[in-house]
Amino acid sequence: MGVYFSIILGMVLVNNYPLAQFLGICPFLGVSKKLDSSLGMGIAVIFVMVMATAATWPIMRLLDSWNIAYLQTVVFILVIAALVQFVEMVLKKFVPALHKALGVYLPLITTNCAVLGVCINNIDLGYNYPQALVNAFGAGVGFLLAMIIFSGMRQKLENNDKVPKPFQGVPITMTTAALLSLAFMGFGGLV
Prior knowledge:
Low-confidence stretches: none
Oligomer: single chain
Radius of gyration: 18 Å
Structural class: mainly alpha
Distance between the termini: 15 Å
Number of helices: 10
């Protein structure tokens, strides 16, 4: 049980994908203007990361057994894209309220490099199947945490008239993201 806790804590705080590994920066910067969109994107990313790991980990075992592991990236991208499309169809058919709430965020996850990154890292780190699933869940929770914190910071700055004119918009957003990343570096060595 201690191993799983260590994996989750490590992925949420120490190896946070957008803040420490700089994976998933596009949705991190693009979808974090409002808290509700950040929350929706974060929850969808958790779900897709866990499902993608559940699908790609056994596929990698097949690729290894057939001596075609060099196709890992291509196969993983195809699997993730197919999985996201399947999830979108199922949600649209059986849970239309959730599909409408997620809106465009679900298809955008296909292009989120953090999802591909967690699948590849699970293999590279030599995790067994349960550890890989826990790692994917922790990475998703870390992504959600980063999105929520950054969204709150952006909303405070947007409503602040004390930000100098040359720093408004993209410059203050990038500066804030850099400072948040530096703050998370303080967790280094925790696990």
